[in-house]
Amino acid sequence: MQLFNARYRVTVYSNTETTIVEYPITCKFIVVRGIFAQSNNATIQLYNLAPSTRNQIFKDQLNLKLEDMKYVHLEAGWNGSMSMIFKGRILQAYSYRTGGQTDVITEIQAVALDIFDCQTSHTFVTGTTFKDALKTMASDMPNVLLGNTGTLEGYFQTPTTFNGMAIDEINKLTGGHSFVDNGILNTLMSNEVIDVPVPVISDDTILLETPRRRDANIEFKTLFLPDIIAGQLVEVKSEVQTQFNGQYKLVGFTHDCLISPTQAGNRTTQLVLWVGALLPNSNMAITGQTQTQPFIKVKNEDTTTVLTTQPSDVQGVYNYIQKNNGSIPGTKITKNVSWEEMLGHNNTNSERKSELTIGILSNVYSTAQTLQRFLNAYYPGRTVTITSGWRSVNNNRNCGGKPTSKHLQGLAVDFNVGGISTSRLITTLASAWNGYVQEYPGKGMCHAQLNADRGRVNDI
Prior knowledge:
Shape: globular
Structural class: alpha+beta
Number of strands: 24
Mean pLDDT: 85
Distance between the termini: 40 Å
């Protein structure tokens, strides 16, 4: 395994704005994840941000208004390839200097997405399968995607009611075998693991310390492992403690990393592997049990959860698109602009599901809001027709867009206004729109995009 340059990206977003910070800004983070979701949290420190960026990230811990909530995504990895390390709700974010230091540190403290604020209340009729009940209750957790349901089998033989916190009621159904890791709800029996590639951790690769036993767990430290997830298998090969060698179920881990072009520091992951006495594949020297059966690997099911309402916020729209295989909710972003208008137009469902990110959807949201403000100021009451908003890579190529088109990022919109000529529209845009604009009179529309330098001829 070749490890060269570490990279990261921090995205802070709300319903109204998105802020992205990435390498080469110095970043230190500690991320704790595992099958015990109540302990999943992150502390992210960003060094010497511009004052305007610090102000955008700031979050007062005592401000609990829903409209002021902020969320964070942390991506990190090696050699330009990054994985999602943490998704969470920001508790507080503030900037400070420590004693005698010149660096200004912006610290973000976040917890796992709001799974403990989600309630469920359903009565399932006789004959309802446990998996269908699980899917229905999972739909009451808007920030969570349904992952593995494992070998959960059975059905209700009498009408059965679940009423309470969604994650608690789901665990009543599954016997305590459900957990949320990084926004994914998994149900795994004791001998089940998620079917992903198994990393082999040995002294001559990324193992940094000798494995040690702590109660029912084995713990050790490795080089930073950005791709691991709770519930998967990990294989250990130690030359010192050979009795610990084998494959174990990963139940928790902590990433502790400093990524900086100027400072050296830790880039490690502390792993916690479960060695329950009855766990198949546990080492006989540890458990006193023989290995009588292999782990069962389970894959994500092709399941669609039940949605009672359609979302309009960025996070809700992202979840909706992922849960519904690329379909667009029928809600509006603004009075005159819908998600369908900004995300449709020759993009396929599969392209939306695979290419749209929180960052792109946040850009789409900002573009729509900017367009609405423009319409309110200059053409109130007029009908706007959007001919192109966000474009997939294939759609952009097919319509002759440049490889660096702002449409790919959700930062551009092509439109016309009823009863207004494109020449008149482009004149108004040129004086009022904070970004590059261009007229397409032959196509009966104008192009407008968001960018910092409004005078620069940018990408179409």
